[in-house]
Amino acid sequence: MHDRLRILVIEDHLALRTAMAAMFEQHGHAVDFAADGRNGLQLALNDPPDVLVLDLTLPGLDGLRVCAELRARADRHVPILMLTARDGLDDKLRGFEAGADDYLVKPFAGEELLARCLALSRRHRAGEPHGLRIGSLSIDRRSGEVRREGRLLELQHTPLRILTILAEAWPRTLTRSELIQRLWGDLPPQSDPLRSHLYLLRQALDKPFARPMLRTVHGVGFKLESDEDATP
Protein backbone atom coordinates (compact mmCIF):
# COMPACT_ATOMS: atom_id res chain seq x y z
CA MET A 1 0.00 0.00 0.00
CA HIS A 2 1.44 3.38 -0.99
CA ASP A 3 1.58 6.48 1.18
CA ARG A 4 -1.44 8.77 0.97
CA LEU A 5 -0.11 12.23 0.28
CA ARG A 6 -1.49 15.73 0.61
CA ILE A 7 -0.26 17.41 -2.55
CA LEU A 8 -0.46 21.11 -3.38
CA VAL A 9 -0.19 21.96 -7.09
CA ILE A 10 0.55 25.57 -8.08
CA GLU A 11 -0.06 25.68 -11.83
CA ASP A 12 -1.84 28.29 -13.95
CA HIS A 13 -2.68 25.99 -16.89
CA LEU A 14 -6.24 24.75 -16.29
CA ALA A 15 -6.07 21.63 -18.48
CA LEU A 16 -2.82 20.50 -16.84
CA ARG A 17 -4.22 21.15 -13.35
CA THR A 18 -7.28 19.07 -14.19
CA ALA A 19 -5.21 16.19 -15.55
CA MET A 20 -2.93 16.17 -12.50
CA ALA A 21 -5.92 16.24 -10.14
CA ALA A 22 -7.49 13.23 -11.84
CA MET A 23 -4.22 11.30 -11.78
CA PHE A 24 -3.39 12.02 -8.13
CA GLU A 25 -6.94 11.35 -6.90
CA GLN A 26 -7.12 8.11 -8.88
CA HIS A 27 -4.17 6.91 -6.79
CA GLY A 28 -5.79 7.95 -3.53
CA HIS A 29 -3.99 11.23 -2.85
CA ALA A 30 -5.60 14.47 -1.67
CA VAL A 31 -4.93 17.45 -3.94
CA ASP A 32 -5.29 21.20 -3.50
CA PHE A 33 -4.64 23.79 -6.20
CA ALA A 34 -3.68 27.38 -6.76
CA ALA A 35 -3.50 29.14 -10.12
CA ASP A 36 -1.04 31.88 -9.15
CA GLY A 37 2.09 32.15 -7.07
CA ARG A 38 0.83 34.48 -4.36
CA ASN A 39 -2.21 32.40 -3.43
CA GLY A 40 -0.21 29.20 -3.72
CA LEU A 41 2.46 30.47 -1.33
CA GLN A 42 -0.18 31.43 1.21
CA LEU A 43 -1.79 27.98 0.99
CA ALA A 44 1.58 26.29 1.45
CA LEU A 45 2.41 28.43 4.50
CA ASN A 46 -1.02 28.08 6.11
CA ASP A 47 -1.25 24.29 5.70
CA PRO A 48 2.07 22.81 4.54
CA PRO A 49 1.50 19.91 2.11
CA ASP A 50 3.46 16.66 1.99
CA VAL A 51 4.70 17.63 -1.49
CA LEU A 52 4.44 20.86 -3.46
CA VAL A 53 4.26 20.62 -7.26
CA LEU A 54 5.29 24.08 -8.42
CA ASP A 55 5.24 25.53 -11.93
CA LEU A 56 8.15 27.83 -12.71
CA THR A 57 6.19 30.37 -14.81
CA LEU A 58 3.28 31.76 -12.79
CA PRO A 59 1.29 34.99 -12.57
CA GLY A 60 1.81 37.04 -9.41
CA LEU A 61 4.95 35.47 -7.96
CA ASP A 62 6.93 33.18 -10.24
CA GLY A 63 7.95 29.72 -9.10
CA LEU A 64 11.46 30.75 -8.07
CA ARG A 65 10.09 33.46 -5.76
CA VAL A 66 7.46 31.10 -4.32
CA CYS A 67 10.17 28.53 -3.66
CA ALA A 68 12.53 31.00 -2.00
CA GLU A 69 9.76 32.57 0.10
CA LEU A 70 8.52 29.18 1.28
CA ARG A 71 12.04 28.14 2.29
CA ALA A 72 12.51 31.38 4.21
CA ARG A 73 9.15 31.41 5.99
CA ALA A 74 7.83 27.85 6.46
CA ASP A 75 8.33 26.17 9.84
CA ARG A 76 9.09 22.79 8.27
CA HIS A 77 10.66 21.39 5.14
CA VAL A 78 8.13 21.06 2.31
CA PRO A 79 9.51 18.90 -0.54
CA ILE A 80 9.23 20.90 -3.78
CA LEU A 81 9.02 19.42 -7.27
CA MET A 82 9.43 22.17 -9.84
CA LEU A 83 7.67 21.89 -13.21
CA THR A 84 8.83 23.81 -16.23
CA ALA A 85 8.91 23.79 -20.01
CA ARG A 86 12.52 24.97 -19.79
CA ASP A 87 15.11 22.21 -19.82
CA GLY A 88 18.42 24.08 -19.80
CA LEU A 89 20.96 23.49 -17.06
CA ASP A 90 20.86 27.16 -16.01
CA ASP A 91 17.12 26.95 -15.33
CA LYS A 92 17.59 23.81 -13.26
CA LEU A 93 20.41 25.37 -11.27
CA ARG A 94 18.30 28.47 -10.57
CA GLY A 95 15.49 26.23 -9.35
CA PHE A 96 17.81 24.31 -7.04
CA GLU A 97 19.39 27.56 -5.81
CA ALA A 98 15.89 28.78 -4.85
CA GLY A 99 15.34 25.61 -2.83
CA ALA A 100 13.66 23.10 -5.17
CA ASP A 101 14.27 19.43 -4.36
CA ASP A 102 13.52 17.97 -7.78
CA TYR A 103 12.81 19.15 -11.31
CA LEU A 104 10.52 17.77 -14.02
CA VAL A 105 10.41 19.13 -17.57
CA LYS A 106 7.11 19.37 -19.46
CA PRO A 107 5.72 17.38 -21.13
CA PHE A 108 5.97 14.53 -18.63
CA ALA A 109 4.22 11.23 -17.96
CA GLY A 110 1.76 11.19 -15.06
CA GLU A 111 3.38 8.02 -13.72
CA GLU A 112 6.75 9.76 -13.45
CA LEU A 113 5.21 12.75 -11.67
CA LEU A 114 3.53 10.44 -9.18
CA ALA A 115 6.68 8.39 -8.62
CA ARG A 116 8.76 11.51 -8.00
CA CYS A 117 6.21 12.90 -5.52
CA LEU A 118 6.23 9.62 -3.58
CA ALA A 119 10.03 9.53 -3.61
CA LEU A 120 10.26 13.14 -2.40
CA SER A 121 7.86 12.55 0.48
CA ARG A 122 9.90 9.60 1.72
CA ARG A 123 13.32 11.10 1.04
CA HIS A 124 12.59 14.30 2.87
CA ARG A 125 10.49 12.77 5.65
CA ALA A 126 7.59 15.05 4.71
CA GLY A 127 6.16 17.16 7.50
CA GLU A 128 9.19 16.97 9.76
CA PRO A 129 10.92 20.11 11.03
CA HIS A 130 13.75 21.68 9.08
CA GLY A 131 16.42 20.32 11.39
CA LEU A 132 18.44 17.19 10.64
CA ARG A 133 20.78 15.73 13.25
CA ILE A 134 23.38 12.96 12.96
CA GLY A 135 25.69 12.66 15.93
CA SER A 136 27.17 16.10 16.62
CA LEU A 137 26.19 17.31 13.12
CA SER A 138 23.11 19.51 12.79
CA ILE A 139 21.68 20.92 9.55
CA ASP A 140 18.97 23.55 9.32
CA ARG A 141 17.45 23.00 5.87
CA ARG A 142 15.69 26.35 5.94
CA SER A 143 18.61 28.63 6.82
CA GLY A 144 21.37 26.42 5.41
CA GLU A 145 23.21 26.62 8.74
CA VAL A 146 25.40 23.60 9.49
CA ARG A 147 27.13 22.94 12.81
CA ARG A 148 29.37 20.15 14.06
CA GLU A 149 30.26 19.95 17.74
CA GLY A 150 28.59 23.33 18.00
CA ARG A 151 30.98 24.90 15.48
CA LEU A 152 29.48 26.70 12.47
CA LEU A 153 30.70 25.23 9.18
CA GLU A 154 31.15 27.40 6.10
CA LEU A 155 29.88 25.52 3.06
CA GLN A 156 29.33 26.61 -0.52
CA HIS A 157 26.01 25.81 -2.20
CA THR A 158 26.82 22.49 -3.90
CA PRO A 159 28.78 20.93 -0.99
CA LEU A 160 25.88 21.94 1.26
CA ARG A 161 23.42 20.22 -1.09
CA ILE A 162 25.57 17.07 -1.12
CA LEU A 163 25.71 17.05 2.68
CA THR A 164 21.95 17.57 2.98
CA ILE A 165 21.18 14.81 0.45
CA LEU A 166 23.47 12.38 2.31
CA ALA A 167 21.99 13.38 5.68
CA GLU A 168 18.44 12.82 4.42
CA ALA A 169 19.47 9.38 3.13
CA TRP A 170 21.41 8.45 6.31
CA PRO A 171 22.41 5.75 7.14
CA ARG A 172 22.02 4.55 3.54
CA THR A 173 24.88 4.71 1.03
CA LEU A 174 24.15 6.73 -2.12
CA THR A 175 25.78 5.75 -5.40
CA ARG A 176 27.82 8.28 -7.34
CA SER A 177 25.23 8.27 -10.15
CA GLU A 178 22.38 8.79 -7.66
CA LEU A 179 24.14 11.81 -6.18
CA ILE A 180 24.83 13.28 -9.62
CA GLN A 181 21.20 12.77 -10.67
CA ARG A 182 19.95 14.44 -7.49
CA LEU A 183 22.28 17.40 -7.93
CA TRP A 184 22.12 18.08 -11.67
CA GLY A 185 19.40 15.87 -13.13
CA ASP A 186 20.11 14.76 -16.69
CA LEU A 187 22.53 17.64 -17.41
CA PRO A 188 25.58 17.24 -15.16
CA PRO A 189 28.72 19.31 -15.80
CA GLN A 190 31.12 17.91 -18.40
CA SER A 191 34.12 17.27 -16.12
CA ASP A 192 34.03 15.02 -13.05
CA PRO A 193 31.16 16.81 -11.32
CA LEU A 194 31.61 15.48 -7.79
CA ARG A 195 35.34 15.44 -7.12
CA SER A 196 35.95 19.11 -6.28
CA HIS A 197 32.68 19.48 -4.35
CA LEU A 198 33.39 16.40 -2.22
CA TYR A 199 36.88 17.75 -1.52
CA LEU A 200 35.41 21.07 -0.32
CA LEU A 201 32.83 19.22 1.79
CA ARG A 202 35.52 17.11 3.46
CA GLN A 203 37.65 20.20 4.15
CA ALA A 204 34.77 21.80 6.08
CA LEU A 205 33.05 18.74 7.58
CA ASP A 206 35.94 16.46 8.52
CA LYS A 207 39.35 18.14 8.44
CA PRO A 208 38.96 20.20 11.66
CA PHE A 209 37.64 17.20 13.65
CA ALA A 210 39.06 13.99 15.07
CA ARG A 211 36.67 11.60 13.33
CA PRO A 212 35.56 11.77 9.68
CA MET A 213 31.84 11.57 8.93
CA LEU A 214 31.92 11.51 5.12
CA ARG A 215 32.84 7.99 4.00
CA THR A 216 33.63 6.65 0.55
CA VAL A 217 32.19 3.14 0.18
CA HIS A 218 34.52 1.75 -2.46
CA GLY A 219 32.74 0.43 -5.51
CA VAL A 220 29.40 1.76 -4.25
CA GLY A 221 29.29 5.45 -3.41
CA PHE A 222 29.18 7.74 -0.38
CA LYS A 223 27.52 7.88 3.02
CA LEU A 224 27.57 9.76 6.30
CA GLU A 225 28.57 8.04 9.52
CA SER A 226 27.67 9.41 12.93
CA ASP A 227 30.63 10.65 14.94
CA GLU A 228 28.92 9.50 18.13
CA ASP A 229 28.51 5.79 17.33
CA ALA A 230 29.89 3.42 19.88
CA THR A 231 33.18 1.94 18.66
CA PRO A 232 33.56 -1.85 18.78
Rounded to the nearest angstrom, the distance between the terminal CA atoms is 39 Å
Low confidence ranges:
none
Structural class: alpha/beta
Number of strands: 12
Q: Which strand-content bin applies to the residues?
A: 15-25%
Order of helices and strands: EHEHEHEHEHEEEEHEHHEE
Number of helices: 8
How many individual domains?
A: 2
Fourth CATH level, the homologous superfamily of the largest domain: Response regulator
Per CATH, the architecture of the largest domain is: 3-Layer(aba) Sandwich
Give the class-level CATH name of the largest domain. Answer: Alpha Beta
Major sheet: arrangement of strands: 2-1-3-4-5
Rg over alpha carbons? 18 Å
Give helix % range: 25-40%
Q: What is the residue-averaged pLDDT? A: 85
Shape: globular
CATH topology of the largest domain: Rossmann fold
Largest sheet: 5 strands, parallel
Gist?
With 232 residues, the chain is α/β, with parallel strands linked by helices. The chain has two domains: 6-123, Response regulator (Rossmann fold); 131-224, Winged helix-like DNA-binding domain superfamily/Winged helix DNA-binding domain (Arc Repressor Mutant, subunit A).
